Amino acid sequence: xxxxPSDDDWLAAAARLAARGRPLSRPNPAVGCLIVxxxxxxxxxxxxxxxxxxxxxxxLDQAGDAAKGADIYVTLEPCAHLSDRGPACADLLAAxxxxxxxxxxxxxxxxxxxxxIARLRAAGIEVRSLACKAGEDTLAGYLARAxxxxxxxxLKLAMSLDGCIALAxxxxxxxxxxxxxxxxxxxxxxxxxxxxxxxxxxKDQPKLDVRLPGLEARSPRRVVLSRDTAPHGVEAVCTPDAxxxxxxxxxxxxxxxxxxxxxxxxADLVDRIxxxxxxxxxxxxxxxxxxxxxxxxxxxxxxxxxxxxxxxGSDAFTAYRRTR
Length: 324
Known about the structure:
Elements: H1 7-18, E1 32-37, E2 40-46, H2 55-63, E3 71-76, H3 89-96, E4 100-105, H4 115-122, E5 126-129, H5 133-138, H6 140-148, E6 152-159, E7 164-166, H7 178-189, E8 193-197, H8 198-204, E9 221-225, E10 235-237, E11 251-256, H9 258-266, E12 272-277, E13 286-287, E14 304-312, E15 315-322
Parallel strand pairs: 3-4, 4-5, 6-11, 6-12, 8-9, 8-11, 9-10
Antiparallel strand pairs: 1-2, 1-3, 7-13, 12-15, 14-15
Helix pairs in contact: 3-4
């Protein structure tokens, strides 16, 4: 006999829906919602482009009367504050009369922070607040802004087996194959902004756009780490810490070069490293990361956890999460 899905399973499914909203839901976080009645999905939703409708409103519209007495799974605490763009989701859920609301992450926004859950409980609805890692992952940019005051930073590295990003003369086309390069473009489409160092910008003049058919319009804002005046259509930050001032950016994708990678790692501003490793050996080439002032190997252990792996043609992809 098949074991029915647990609350954690349903929340993980809601988190997969939430991923559809990134990054188009900005400035709102990408939230997912599932309404489950008698073990079957009656409604589902995720935050739409521009932030409205919210996930809960979309799911409730689908479920209709089936929401009454149902279990509702939502990755982020339902909003409780008034808005001229629509009613508070906590009020919508309370009016729908579900038996339970299961929340993956409590909202750090002071306008809601606990008030959404309190409002549901005041309406006689059972509320469970679970520590949902999948939900936190889909809200990583929103939570980084709220908790750390800066965007969530992903550092992308495409390298040979021996950790080189180019030949000694700087030749780098192509380290990885077409599958890995398409994967990078899909990652770019999920970012609000993409950053490279000033040296990389001046040497390579990278387009930093999305060149996947149908996703060209999803190209992120372009940012250069440089003290020089930014070129037209490009923003500049003079230090890694200055990314905090990138208004409206929840997800920042850092692509290089080696000095920039080292600067962000040294400042402990990298939340995720995505490594594309090609099955080639270069030898005396340019390193993926420049020198870092590390006094003892003990400082390097326990900082990164592998969270995702994939084979992309002949290239291997591995993602690591910063453990804090």
